[in-house]
């Protein structure tokens, strides 16, 4: 076994047939909907599960508009916490667990996300699912500096990061069971950006300001360096994790560039010719964050980021002007 991997279960020896359904949880979300589109482009049969129904939620409707027109897509309206998930999981070879922590009461976030993940894992185990790809986060490392690989201690500083870290550990405990057919690949994503990014995130706000000409409000804006990964690279990592012939692993997934707020503004000006102004008092200086070692992802999954920050900003700005033109996540 490679020193870069953590053994969670048997290595995959065969890739699933594309007529065998795959399940994507959080399918109406940012990463989930981009992954669904990519899977459909690749010819897979996809079940997309989300608690938000596109008939009643405008964001879910926009994100899944393309998928719902595809004959190989089935939408599953369910909440992972407390619902019988066996109909959604039956016959699936691979499950992409992208549904993140989400609860209006912060104190309940950890409990609900861990319970939901446990419900999914038990169902996958009983249904003989072979591979679960879990969308984790580099936020679980906390406010650290230096170069963090997947063995770096977890010190989550937010409730969401704590919930994600605990669910990742739970997935690992199921995968370590020698009687379970399930193997788990956890992808610790850096900050994902691109088409369909939630509007409150920094790059989405920056792109919106560039699109509308309005100033970027600095209130509650992180100013320190951040590591970003474009959504098509994030999707490519998930696709690789589903079929990689490895024992299960925990790996970092990041893009090639780190940028603070000033560098983001400079990139927008120097590469796209748009000078975004700012408004409001500058926020306090926040601590530097780590760069993330993705060498294990390269060795185990063949992952390499393709999209540099300037190109990613250009694509996201183009999408903001024409939301129908979304990358399929595989180019």
UniProtKB/TrEMBL annotation:
It comes from the Bacteria. Belongs to the NAD(P)-dependent epimerase/dehydratase family. This is UDP-glucose 4-epimerase. InterPro entries: Epimerase_deHydtase (IPR001509), NAD(P)-bd_dom_sf (IPR036291). Residues 22-253 form the NAD-dependent epimerase/dehydratase domain. It holds the Pfam family Epimerase.
């Amino acid at each position: 076994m490679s020193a870069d991997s953590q053994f969670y279960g048997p290595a995959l020896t065969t890739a699933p047939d594309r007529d065998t359904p795959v399940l994507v949880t959080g399918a109406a979300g940012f990463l989930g909907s981009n992954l669904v589109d990519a899977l459909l482009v690749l010819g897979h049969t996809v079940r997309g599960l989300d608690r938000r129904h596109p008939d009643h939620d405008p964001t879910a409707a926009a994100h899944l508009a393309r998928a719902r027109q595809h004959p190989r897509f089935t939408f599953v309206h369910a909440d992972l916490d407390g619902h019988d998930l066996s109909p959604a999981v039956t016959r699936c070879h691979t499950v992409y667990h992208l549904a993140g922590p989400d609860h209006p009461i912060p104190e309940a976030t950890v409990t609900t996300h861990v319970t939901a993940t446990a419900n999914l894992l038990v169902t996958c185990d009983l249904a003989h699912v072979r591979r679960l790809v879990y969308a984790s986060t580099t936020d679980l490392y906390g406010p650290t500096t230096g170069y963090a690989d997947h063995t770096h201690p977890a010190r989550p500083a937010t409730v969401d990061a704590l919930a994600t870290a605990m669910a990742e550990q739970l997935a690992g405990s199921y995968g370590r069971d020698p009687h379970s057919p399930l193997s788990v690949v956890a992808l610790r994503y850096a900050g994902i950006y691109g088409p369909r990014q939630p509007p409150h995130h920094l790059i989405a706000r920056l792109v919106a300001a560039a699109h509308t000409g309005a100033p970027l409000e600095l209130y509650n804006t992180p100013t320190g360096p951040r590591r970003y990964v474009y959504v098509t690279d994030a999707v490519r990592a998930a696709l690789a994790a589903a079929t990689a012939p490895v024992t299960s692993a925990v790996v970092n997934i990041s893009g090639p560039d780190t940028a603070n707020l000033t560098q983001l503004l400079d990139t927008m000006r120097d590469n796209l010719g748009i000078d975004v102004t700012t408004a409001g008092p500058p926020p306090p200086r926040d601590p530097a964050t780590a760069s993330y070692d993705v060498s294990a992802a390269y060795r185990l999954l063949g992952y390499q980021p393709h999209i540099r920050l300037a190109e990613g900003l250009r694509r996201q700005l183009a999408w903001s002007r024409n939301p129908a033109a979304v990358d399929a996540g595989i180019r």
